[in-house]
Structures are given as structure tokens and as C-alpha cells.
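User: what does the whole thing look like in 3D?
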Amino acid sequence: MASSEKTPVDLSAAMITEPAALADWLVIAPLVLCMVLGSLLLMVRKDTRLQPFIAIPGLAVLVLLDVGLLVHVIVNGPVTMTMGRWLPPFGISFTVDILGALLCLTAGIAAFAGGLYGAGDVNDSGRRYGFYPFLFLMMAGVSGAFLTGDIFNLYVWFEVLLISSFGLLILGSERGQIDGATKYAFLNLVATTLFLIATGYLYGIFGTLNMADIAQKAPAMTDKAPLVTLVSLYLLAFGMKAAAFPANFWLPASYHTPRVVVSALFAGLLTKVGVYALMRVTLMLFPAERDVLGFVIAIIAAATMIIGAMGALAQTDFRRLLGYLVISGIGIMFAGIALASPSGVAGTIFYAVHSMIVMTALYLASGLAARAAGGFSIASSSGVYSSHVFLAAITLMLFFAVSGLPPFSGFWPKVILVKASLDVGAWWLAGAILLSGFLTTIAVGRVWILSYWRPAMTGGPAQDEAVTLNPLVDYLPLVLLTALVVIVGIFPQQILELSQTGSDQVLNPVDYIRSVFPQGGEQ
Amino acid sequence: MRTLIFRTVAPYLSSLMVLFSVFVLLRGHNEPGGGFIGGLIAASAFAIYGIACGVSPVRRALFFHPMAIAGSGLMMASIAGLVSILAGVPFMTGLWVYIPIFGEELALSTVLLFDVGVYFVVVGAITSIALALEERATD
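Assistant: Here's the predicted 3D structure for the full assembly of 662 residues, as C-alpha cells:
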């Protein structure tokens, strides 16, 4: 092996022999960029002034690469690159369809906004603890999870993003953060272990980990193997990750403790990775088994959205309230998975995109509002509207969007999902979506009235001098995300079409399989 | 732990272990061994040195911060995968060059670069943890 014996070997039996096109490198590019920049930032960790100047352009490049990947996938259908030239299913394949590429792009945009905001929000000690390196490594995990076509590899990316998120969570090493991180870490480790057990089980049944290969083989195995058990395990594991009822308690217990920008990124990215993985496994790999569990998923969905919205009503801390809104959104995404009709899944994809952007933006806005009003407590903060009209206007738009009111981005996916539920006669699911939207409106309306609209209290927290917010690092990320919310709300056609194509590709993964196995058959 | 015997032996022991870790790293290409186990051996060498002589001499001897070493390892591993873009083959494909030296052929490969990267990641990460723990103990 090491010496250069020149015996001719037929490589085509084990390896991909055609050269990899440069455009196919886009499949792996977001991931590699995050790894390289993450390691570079790790090396210059002490140079806190330099870090944003590497990180922010790097995140901009990441967004561009994600755009390129999405365009490539739209034009050419699902694309695959198999690592190390080994033929799939033995090589680890990265296979990207529209669902993966779209979520990856949205995650990139949220990360860009977060990185920019972090330049103002994360102080020197936070940077020395490694905010930017962790951000990039987390993005490597998130991008990897969205792009990979191998289920064990998906597990590995979950671990990568989980470990980076531990680092981000305890960035300041404060008491509350350690407390939140312990709950977060414990529950996520349990979920990851379940994921691993389920994957081992799956490997025992199928003898392969390549998702396209599993999707091919699953229909023949339906009666031979206990696949419903397997899918239930996955449902539990990913449900915990996504903070779905009844495993939702860890999220509000931990998301309000770290720095605002970290909460924003977590709320935008991490739970959606769980939803994405659940979509991949239930909708693409095991549709027949999902049908058995459909009713259970529907109940989980309804319970999650109602409990999330009611939890939000009960909170007095702005950030804890937002944590419950994240949960409520997860329930709405689960509704589409429960329906599994093309329009239902399209609604879920659309809602995932919306939720990533709007939740990130809301947490960023909450951070600015807390700076302006002197704290996250709804009861004691006030007067944001009178001191920062622009911030108040943006937040109001985001409140409308998260409640699902037109003309913002939250409206369309909810319309699609309500219609999809009514189509199959699940009136109670449609009712739950509408009720959760109504409760969310009340919950955020309360914040708006008390923290924003109420005139600044005298004798409250000293707010005599107006808090000035930096237009570049404080407002720009928020404006960017809100602009997306408005644009998607007014011109939903593009995202709608993408969601529908993405939903077709997931529900009928012929192209996905063909992109991994071009010969169209067994190896 | 700062006994005279231990303090006298530790530098020699550590240097031997680091040497051995490099041997294990290179041996791992075709036989049992490799970057991960080599990195662990090197990290335990630094840990022993730290226990015997204190943490700051180790930090001085390493010169770079352990986390920076880990970062450079991750970068090396990524670059090892990126080299294949020049050869027109997928990410992480193993590529070899054979350099003739003194009549023997020296086989260099991206696989080796990747393994060296793993070695540095493990050395950096584990040393960083070990030194942090030892620092608390000596307070």
C-alpha cells in the first residue's frame, strides 16, 4: 500500500472513477469553510480585535456558498459527493436536495446576523472564551447535518453542533449559565444516545447507513423487521432535540441564560436541526412506518403548540417567553410531519425557514430592548417605544410575524398547514394551529404593551440617559432579518415553490436515490 | 508530587514519551497506531511534566497555547481533504506522492497529513484539559 507497486488494479469496482466537477464541491464547501475558519479563529483566539474581521466576512462567504449550493440544487436536482471516492454506500455520501440546501442557506443567514450582532454583544472575555470559533464549529455541525446523506454521519454532526453549543452556552461561566447548561447538556446527551442506539439498531436491520440506500431497501423490509419500533426511537430522540412535548422542558430552562446572541442562534438553528432530521427519517426513509405513528405525531404537534403558547402567556421574562414561542413553532412544524401530505410538508419546510429567521431576529430584538429598557423582565421594563421608535417598529413586525398575521412570513405556512389539516379532516389540528396563533398574539401583545408601549416608569431602573445603539452591529443584523421576514411575507411565491419542490423530493426520493446511485440499482 | 526523584525523571520520561508518540503516529499508517493514540501519548507526556514541574514550565515549553495547537491540527486535517480539489477527485480522497530519498521511496500522502492533524487536535485538546485541571490543583 505504501510502496508504489505498479500492479494494475481495477479501481472502478470500489471507487468512483469519474472526476468530481468543481460545482459539486459546493456540496461540501459550507462545511469545509466553517471548519477551516473555525480552526483559524481558534488559533487567533487571544486576538479579540482581529476575530470579527475574519469571522464576519467568513460568514458572508458562507451565505454566498449556500446560495450557490441552493441554485445548483434547483438547477440540477439533488447532488451527491461521496467522500474519498469510495463507492456508496461504503463511502460517506453528502447528498443535498432542496430541503437541505434551503435550510442550510437560512441557517447561514441567521449565523451571519448572529456573527455581526456578536461583534457588539460579545465582549472581550466572551471572545477569548471562543465565541467565534464555537460559532463556526457549530455552523459546521449545522451545515453538516443539513447536507449529509448518511445517517451515522448525521449523528456525528449532531455531536459537533452539540459540543460547540455547550461551549457557547457557558461563554461567561456565570452561575445561571452553568445551571442552564447542565439541564441542556443532560437532556441532549440522552437524546443523542437514543439517536445512536436507534442508528445501531438500524444498521443491524439494514446493514447500511446511507440514507438513499435505506430508502431503497425500506419498503422490502416493512414486514420483516420491527421498523415501527425503530421509527419510534427516532421520533423520541429527535423530538427531544426539537423540544417537542413532552420533552420540551429543557429549552425554556436553558435558553434564557447565555448571551443574547447565543440564545438567538440556538433558537434559530438547533431545534430546527432536530425537526429536519425527523423529516428526513420519517418522511423519506420510513414513510410506511410514519403512517402508523401519524396520529401520535399529530397529538404531539397539537400539544406542543398549545403548551408552548400557554407557557409564553405565563412568562414574565422576555427571553423565557421567546423560548416558549420556539416550542410552539416546533409544534406547528410537527403538524406538517403528522400530515405528510405534499402541501403539509411544504408548509413545514416553509415554517422552518420562517421560524429560523424570525426567532433569531426576536432574540436579537429582545437583547436590544433589554439594553434600552433596562432588563428582560416584562413587569419592570418599559418605555422602549418612546426612546427607540425604530426598534419598537421592527419588533412589532416580528411580533406579527411570529403570531402568523399577514403580511409577514409566518402567515403563509400557517395558511398552508391549516388548509392541509382541513383537507384530511383533521379539524382539531387546524384548530390547534389557529388557537396557538391566537395565544401567541396575546402573549407578544402583552410584551408590546408593557415593555414597549408603556411610558418609561419613573423610579424604575435608571434610564435617564438614552441608551444609544450602534447602527452597524446592533441594528443591521436585525434589519436584515426583518427585511427577509417582510419580503418573504409579501412575495412568498419563491419560497413557496421551493418548499413544494422540496416536499416532493422528500416524499418521493427518486432523484435523491438516483443522485447517489447513478446506475439506479444495487451496487 | 514534587519529589526529587520524580522531578529528575520527568523531563526524560516526557521527552521519551513524545518521541514514542511520533513513532506511534507514523507507524499507524500501516500497522496499529495512528494520530489519535499518538496524540494521547504525547498529551500524557505533557501532563506528567506538568505534575512534576508545574504548569507554567509546560506552557513555556509548548510555546503555543494548546488550543491553538488543536486549531492548527483541525486546519491541517481540513486542508488534507481540500488537496483533492486540485486532483479533481472528491473531498478527502487519499493522494500519494513518492519522493525518492537515498534510494528508498518516501511515501507522503494526504492521509498522513490528516493523521498528523488528528495528532495535533488530540494533543492540543487533551493537554489543554490536563493543564487546566492541574492548575486548579496547585492553587
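In plain terms: Residues 110-138 of chain B form the longest helix (29 residues). Chain B touches chain A through 28 residues (CB under 8 Å).
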